[in-house]
């Protein structure tokens, strides 16, 4: 019973975060879900619930989507998705997590010190490719998108809308790939079903918070999530 309440709390907080910022469900939920479930279960529950949130929000926020960047993210992700699945099935996860953690932390600190980049079509596609790779390998597409949007100094409306639209594609395809190549089980779908009411509550609260978060606070929050992600992956890789 204690585990159930911990699971529900994780889902509720992660849903609020995803809805209010456009990112964060996988970044926040996956580390804690891995404490309760196996890797396959944690990743697939994350994929299912993140897809539900993106599906529910996409119509309302469609006017803020950068459709050009979204198209290039999707094209780039097509290359990254199968590579990520190969990594998930064949490679040492600890080495992958260690490498990602170092890159995320280094780039985050560069962003904090005002290092900025310009947006290009090639960088859009590279970001999509990295997001696809991380989705099927560790269930976390968020870090490349967050780093990129922060680096080009994007506003919060564009970041949230474009990221959620991309998630709608990437999570659906990643879930199909996971189910086909890694299999699935009842625990994943039953747990996701139990979580749905709390996802809905989290979405409602997240929408209320979004209108209250200004650009400066949004940026601080983004950096905090990236730093948390980097240190979490670093600690996990050293176990």
From TrEMBL:
Segments crossing the lipid bilayer: 6-36, 43-61, 73-91, 98-117, 129-149, 161-182, 188-210, 217-235
DNA-binding keyword on record: no
Source superkingdom: Bacteria
Record membrane topology: Multi-pass membrane protein
Record InterPro entries: TM_pro_TauE-like, TSUP
Cellular component terms (Gene Ontology): plasma membrane
Pfam family, one: TauE
Keywords from the named record: Cell membrane, Membrane, Transmembrane, Transmembrane helix, Transport
UniProt feature coiled coil, ranges: none
Subcellular location: Cell membrane
UniProt keyword Transport, yes or no: yes
PANTHER family associated with the record: MEMBRANE TRANSPORTER PROTEIN, TRANSMEMBRANE PROTEIN YFCA
Family statement: Belongs to the 4-toluene sulfonate uptake permease (TSUP) (TC 2.A.102) family.
Protein name: Probable membrane transporter protein
Originating species: Lederbergia citrisecunda
Lineage, uppermost ranks: Bacteria, Bacillati, Bacillota, Bacilli, Bacillales
């Amino acid at each position: 019973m204690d585990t159930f309440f911990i699971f529900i709390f994780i889902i509720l907080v992660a849903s609020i975060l995803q809805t209010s910022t456009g990112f964060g469900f996988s970044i926040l939920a996956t580390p804690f879900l891995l404490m309760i479930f196996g890797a396959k279960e944690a990743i697939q529950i994350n994929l299912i619930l993140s897809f539900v949130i993106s599906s529910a929000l996409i119509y309302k926020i469609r006017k803020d989507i950068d459709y050009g960047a979204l198209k290039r993210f999707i094209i780039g992700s097509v290359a990254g998705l199968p590579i990520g699945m190969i990594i998930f099935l064949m490679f040492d996860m600890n080495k992958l997590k260690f490498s990602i953690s170092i890159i995320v932390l280094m780039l985050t600190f560069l962003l904090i010190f005002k290092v900025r980049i310009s947006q290009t079509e090639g960088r859009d596609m590279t970001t999509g490719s990295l997001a696809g790779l991380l989705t099927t390998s560790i269930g976390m597409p968020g870090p490349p998108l967050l780093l990129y949007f922060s680096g080009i100094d994007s506003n919060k409306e564009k970041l949230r809308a474009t990221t959620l639209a991309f998630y709608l594609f990437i999570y659906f395809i990643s879930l199909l790939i996971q189910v086909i190549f890694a299999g699935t089980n009842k625990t994943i779908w039953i747990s996701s079903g139990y979580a749905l009411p709390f996802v809905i509550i989290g979405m409602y609260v997240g929408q209320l918070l979004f209108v209250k978060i200004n650009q400066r606070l949004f940026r601080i929050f983004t950096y905090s999530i990236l730093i948390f992600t980097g240190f979490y992956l670093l600690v996990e890789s050293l176990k």
